[in-house]
Amino acid sequence: KAKAPKGKKITLKTAKNSIRISFDGGRRLDLSKMGITTFPKCILKLTDVDELDLSRNMLKKIPSSIQMFQKLRWLDLHSNRLEELPGTIGTLQKLFYLNISNNKLTSKNLPEELNLLKNLRILNLGMNCLDSIPTSLGALKELKEIGLFDNALTSIPNSVKKLPKLKKLNAGRNPFLDSTEQEEHGDSTKCVEAFYLVQEKDLCCSCLKMCQDERDKLNKLKNVTPNPSKKPSFPLLITPNSSAKDNQEEWRLR
């Protein structure tokens, strides 16, 4: 039986050295890309931070003790292996940014307590295993941006679509059943096609190159203007064809 990867152990000293001051003066604990497989208990002694970044690790679970971070306004858990979230996440009343994209969350394991995050402005649920979105998210009246892309959604509740302050909704690449709904979300996604909830600097080299290659392909397709009636021209071709003769038999006879 294959052994599970042994993650890096984070000490309190390492955690303290990973604290940065954000642009607005807040204290940010950045433990991203550290190869962490289990939530480091030592950081429970640093619960006065304003921002916590545990993205791009191998975490499968966030403990209920996350509620101790009552000052948190920014929480990034994207690109882990999370299959569930604790209901205590709903106690983080100062949270305005929550990114849990690119995990293994299912609709069943999405905590109902998310609807308690009354100050949440940005929520990213993209690239998970969600087949439905709870209507209770309609209680997040301050929500301005939400990412639902790359899931298994067949519909989006009206309570979410009609949030009063919602400006950006990315619901691309979902198998919507209703064709009109598919077109509706296609249009809304098109309006924000340059909206990225994961910045380029946060992607690994291979993922970044793949995204850039796909973008270049799309740009080339947009720029191509086919004109079947126009004959090909090869001005630099050093052959008799360079004069673009229509009747090639003349050249063969010579």
TrEMBL record:
<dbReference type="InterPro" id="IPR003591">
    <property type="entry name" value="Leu-rich_rpt_typical-subtyp"/>
</dbReference>
<dbReference type="Pfam" id="PF23598">
    <property type="entry name" value="LRR_14"/>
</dbReference>
<dbReference type="InterPro" id="IPR050216">
    <property type="entry name" value="LRR_domain-containing"/>
</dbReference>
<protein>
    <submittedName>
        <fullName>LRC18 protein</fullName>
    </submittedName>
</protein>
<dbReference type="InterPro" id="IPR001611">
    <property type="entry name" value="Leu-rich_rpt"/>
</dbReference>
<dbReference type="GO" id="GO:0005737">
    <property type="term" value="C:cytoplasm"/>
</dbReference>
<dbReference type="InterPro" id="IPR055414">
    <property type="entry name" value="LRR_R13L4/SHOC2-like"/>
</dbReference>
<keyword id="KW-0433">Leucine-rich repeat</keyword>
<keyword id="KW-0677">Repeat</keyword>
<feature type="region of interest" description="Disordered">
    <location>
        <begin position="222"/>
        <end position="254"/>
    </location>
</feature>
<feature type="domain" description="Disease resistance R13L4/SHOC-2-like LRR">
    <location>
        <begin position="71"/>
        <end position="176"/>
    </location>
</feature>
<dbReference type="InterPro" id="IPR032675">
    <property type="entry name" value="LRR_dom_sf"/>
</dbReference>
